[in-house]
Specification:
Strand content: 15-25%
Largest sheet: 7 strands, mixed
Number of helices: 27
Distance between the termini: 47 Å
CATH superfamily of the domain at 400-427 and 541-642: HAD superfamily/HAD-like
Helix content: 40-55%
Strand order of the largest sheet: 15-27-26-25-16-23-24
Structural class: alpha+beta
């Protein structure tokens, strides 16, 4: 069972590690954390766990699950109250900070009293800052030290040192007022809370695509039960029940139309702007919009089995992708806190015994605290998930679903792309293009073909727009054609081989010119005499030639791998400009051809749509599945193209490259921030309170940079 649970206080990658390591120690459950969406994705055994028990386990380790909107509002309200309380209590201490800095702002003597500052700082540290202590405890427990540990160390050290200074100060002895750091404790917590507040608002934008997807789902369905139509929650609908969908209503669940015809707006799923005509026997997708007339639909999938649920899973899982750079950063982050603590101690000792020998300890204390506070491991952990979350939203709007974790790393290395022909380079729907001979005889062929479910039969019927004749004695001759009686005449529609088998003279028709064009040729015979020749072809997609030319311009070699006959494959390849063609290839041999191309030193992508393409999709370094294809092909791919537009291949590659650059820019910021700021803090150029401001906003910079991906513009190329 899979379940996503929102958690209010997930702030960074270390939170994710704490949660994942805890549940990793339990049997029958696996947890993955989406930091940007503040969600935990559980895969668990229903016999051992239920949603509420998973929530109880989260609470044990200090994280607060949100199961409904009411709880979410409570969590936001709680955070806002903490922020307001911190602001009210921090202001008077912030006032005293300026006095310590030598800036006179007429601070009342009462506020300069150490005991008064102690009283103000205590609720800030232990009530407002309780979340940091809780998280730090669980991070220490799980040996995943993060920002919260640094916050607790920095604020507690400043608080305890200030108490010591206050208790040991003797005003009657004539000593100068000691330097207190209660305001540092307060300001650090306040600034981190402000940083978290803005970061959460920005993060909500990075997960906008996922929230939009979730909102697409219908809450209720109109189901026929006991002869009555009743509205029920989609959670209560079972597979096989009859769903009634009125005009301008949302199709609640996946199904097959039993009765009625209508146009279905599938733009939110496929990206296609024009509504698609659907009739009895056609599949419909849950969350799409019925625009014209009432439909009766048999439900075929509910819950996690629906297409929308599958897409949501894919988008969620994409945010868990960790390119090599992020895996390295994760290892650095594990060592980050111990190293920073060591630097802080070294800084304190250096200032005490070398730089500031003989001076009060407070001079050494400030830079040591600043080192702890300015450091920010969160930016390292957020570098990848924020960028990928934004990119996934952009991709989904274009009709692209990223799935494979390797894609972002190797997209810029692809040097060869192999395409399946039928349904990939071509539309996958044969069309009648030529009628040679008696034009009127089409009515006999169409009347006969109407009774066949072969794709070519459909092409012939679609080309005829008049009334059909009744047919008797209908017979299918497997692999060769069909025959029957129409209007009292014996009609045969079939291949050259069938005509030769029936000893029907073919001399008056020459199929060779059409065969050389990659077309399939059939003959219509009336009473054992051929009266017409029909040429059928699977037309190329509008964008196919433009995509091939664009790939060649980029130095990427296109290949075609097809099970079709060599003559047809060669003609299609010549039309597109593909020099490398493998024809008459059996399904299992497609993967072998991919292997051959890889052995030539290429990083290979494969684009396909059928069940027979699944092995090749898996063998390729990157697999692109056309979304209208089989479920198996889509499941084995790294990228799913949800519409028939081959231009999405180029867009998917370009967006992945932009995303990878964005991730590297995030890492550059995260590393450079720490490399520059920690030394500045160590040499005493940063006040601890100012350091708190820097830490609070460092992660925000990473998230804002990720959001800049929304400015990415796809390149256009000529469609032939």
């Amino acid at each position: 069972m899979r379940k996503s649970i929102k958690v209010s206080n997930i702030t960074c990658a270390q939170c994710a590690k704490s949660i994942e390591s805890y549940f990793g120690g339990l049997e029958g459950v696996e947890a993955k954390v989406l930091v940007t969406s503040k969600k935990v994705i559980f895969n668990y055994d229903e016999n051992q766990y239920e949603e509420q028990s998973l929530g109880d386990h989260l609470r044990i380790i200090g994280y607060y699950p949100i199961f409904n909107n009411e709880e979410q509002e409570k969590a936001k309200k709680r955070d806002l109250i903490d922020l307001i309380l911190a602001a009210i209590l921090t202001f008077p201490l912030l006032w005293t900070m300026f006095e310590h800095l030598g800036i006179s702002l007429n601070v009342p003597d009462l506020l300069m009293n150490g005991y008064v500052q102690w009283a103000i700082a205590t609720p800030i540290l232990f009530f407002v800052g309780r979340r940091f202590f809780q998280s730090a405890y669980h991070q220490l427990n799980g040996k995943n030290l993060g920002m919260d540990v640094l916050v607790v160390l920095g604020t507690s050290a400043a608080y305890i040192f200030s108490i010591y200074q206050t208790l040991t100060y003797d005003s009657h002895a004539g000593h100068a007022m000691p330097e207190l750091y209660f305001e540092t404790t307060a300001v650090i917590i306040f600034m981190v809370l402000i940083g978290n507040f803005f970061e959460n608002r920005v993060k909500e934008k990075t997960s906008h695509a996922l929230q939009s997807l979730i909102s697409l789902g219908a809450k209720e369905a109109r189901i026929r039960r006991d002869g009555k139509e009743v509205l029920v929650s989609v959670d209560q609908v079972k597979v096989g029940e009859i769903m009634i969908v009125l005009a301008n209503e949302k199709v609640a669940l996946d199904g097959i139309i039993l009765k009625g015809e209508s146009y279905i707006d599938e733009a939110m799923i496929t990206g296609e702007p024009m509504p698609a005509f659907r009739k009895p026997g056609d599949k419909v997708i849950g969350s799409t919009m019925n625009t014209v007339s009432t439909l009766e639909i048999e439900v075929t999938a509910v819950g996690q089995d629906t297409i929308l649920a599958s897409i949501i899973r894919t988008v969620e899982d994409t945010a868990l992708i960790k390119p090599k750079a992020q895996r390295i950063a994760d290892k650095i982050a594990q060592l980050f806190v111990p190293v920073v603590v060591f630097i802080s101690i070294f800084t304190f000792l250096a200032w005490t015994f070398i730089v500031d020998g003989g001076h009060p300890l407070s001079h050494s204390f400030a830079p040591a605290i600043a080192v702890l506070v300015i450091s920010c491991p969160c930016a390292l952990g957020l570098a990848t998930p924020t960028s990928i979350s934004v990119a996934s939203g952009i991709a989904f709007r274009e009709g692209i679903l990223y799935k494979g974790g390797e894609f972002f790393e190797i997209a810029n290395k692809i040097s060869a792309i192999a395409f399946d022909k039928t349904g990939t380079l071509t539309k996958g729907h044969p069309e009648l293009t030529e009628i040679i001979g008696d034009q009127d005889a089409l009515k006999y062929a169409a009347s006969l073909e109407y009774h066949s479910n072969h794709p070519i039969a459909k092409a012939i019927v679609d080309a005829y727009d008049d009334e059909l004749f009744d047919v008797s004695d209908f017979e299918v001759i497997l692999g060769k054609g069909i025959q029957g009686t129409v209007d009292g005449k014996k009609i045969v529609v079939g291949s050259k081989a069938l005509m030769q088998e029936l000893s029907i003279d073919l001399s008056s028709f020459d199929p060779k010119p059409y065969l050389q064009q990659g077309k399939t040729v059939f003959f219509t015979a009336i009473n054992d005499k051929i009266v017409q020749m029909l040429a059928v072809e699977d037309p190329l997609k509008d964008t196919a030639k433009g995509v091939i030319q664009e790939l060649k311009r980029r130095g990427i070699t296109p290949y075609m791998i097809t099970g079709d006959q060599k003559m047809t494959a060669d003609y299609i390849a010549s039309e597109l400009g593909i020099e490398h063609v493998f024809a008459e290839v059996l399904p299992h041999e497609k993967a072998e051809k991919i292997h051959e191309i890889r052995n030539e030193g290429h990083i290979v992508a494969f684009v396909g749509d059928g069940i027979n393409d699944a092995p090749a999709l898996k063998m390729a370094d990157v697999g692109f599945a056309v979304g209208s294809g089989s479920d198996i092909a889509i499941d084995t791919s790294d990228v799913t193209l949800m519409s028939l537009d081959l231009g999405l291949v180029i867009k998917a590659i370009d967006l992945s490259l932009a995303t990878l650059k964005n991730i590297y820019l995030n890492f550059f910021w995260a590393f450079s921030y720490n490399v520059v700021m920690i030394p500045l803090a160590a040499i005493g150029l940063l006040n601890p309170s100012l350091a708190g401001i820097g830490m609070g906003f460092s992660s925000i910079m990473v998230v804002l940079n990720a959001l800049s991906l929304n400015l990415f513009k796809f390149k256009t190329f000529k469609e032939e």
